[in-house]
Fold each of these.
Amino acid sequence: MGERQGAVFLDRDGTIIEEVNYLKDPADIQLLPGAVEALRLLQERYPLVIITNQAGIARGYFDEQQLREIHRHLEQLLADMEILLAGIYYCPHHPEAGSFRYRQNCHCRKPKPGMLKAAARDLALDLAKSYTIGDKLSDIGAGKNAGTKTILVRTGYGRQHEAEIARSQLAPDYAADDLPAAAAWILEHKH
Ligand SMILES: [Mg+2]
Ligand SMILES: [Zn+2]
């Protein structure tokens, strides 16, 4: 068996696509400026895995079938640009909202590391060689809890959350203005 490789874990909303509150219409998917170029560069070296909290399901704003439709659409948009995702993992839960099945203290909701660990198992990844990119404290927490390096992007909620994150115990390894800057840092960083 070959050596396990690292991956790049990416938050979805505010990191790859425009932050839309509880996105439920595939037509509202809008890739952030430079996202396509950044993903294209990263995928030459790393499998790309999206990890996304989708508590809109627990809250009843949309269902899992609608979410899968959105993800099919996103994957198609990216495939048209020759970007192939290794996986999309989502957490449909919320600890307090929603009904049985979705209302639970799960292991997948970021900042817990469950989605990254599941992907590492499914795709035979080395988390210590991996990176997590996101715009929220919960992304940085999940990445750290999984043992990856972490990058905050100042898109989405990133800029407004940056001070809070800097004060927390969860300072990211790097803060980048956007996904292209995060990709450049990863590719220079080389482990
Ligand atoms: Mg986000
Ligand atoms: Zn969950």
Note: The longest helix spans residues 64-80.
Amino acid sequence: MDLLLWDKKFSVHNDSLDAHHKQLFELCNEMFKQIDQESKTPVYSTAKVISELHMYAIFHFAEEEKLMEKYDFPKLDEHKKLHQGFIQKLAQLKEQYESDDVLVDYDILNFLSDWLIYHILEVDSEYIDYINE
Ligand SMILES: [Fe+2]
């Protein structure tokens, strides 16, 4: 079972950015699977996924910001701040998981998946008309 299912409504009408968003969903789904098998899964597995999510989000946000910049998206600064906040949160989670004293939990996963869903549908959707001119 997956936590996040890709659907056309998530499309920002840009193949490359859609592929990135799908990959972010996949990483959340992977983390969901780790949590599902909590008793059988060593903590390092989740730390690894969080670390991948952190790295991939940095890569993806940079690509997205480059495009928004290229097309003079007016809310670029605001958008960048939201990205930075998410990266900070992921960095903090990564540290916590790597230090081994935090157990995986659904609240964190829900926070991550809710953030992504909201961000793509409500925030990323604002740049669609700009970057696809
Ligand atoms: Fe974004």
Note: The chain has one domain: 14-131.
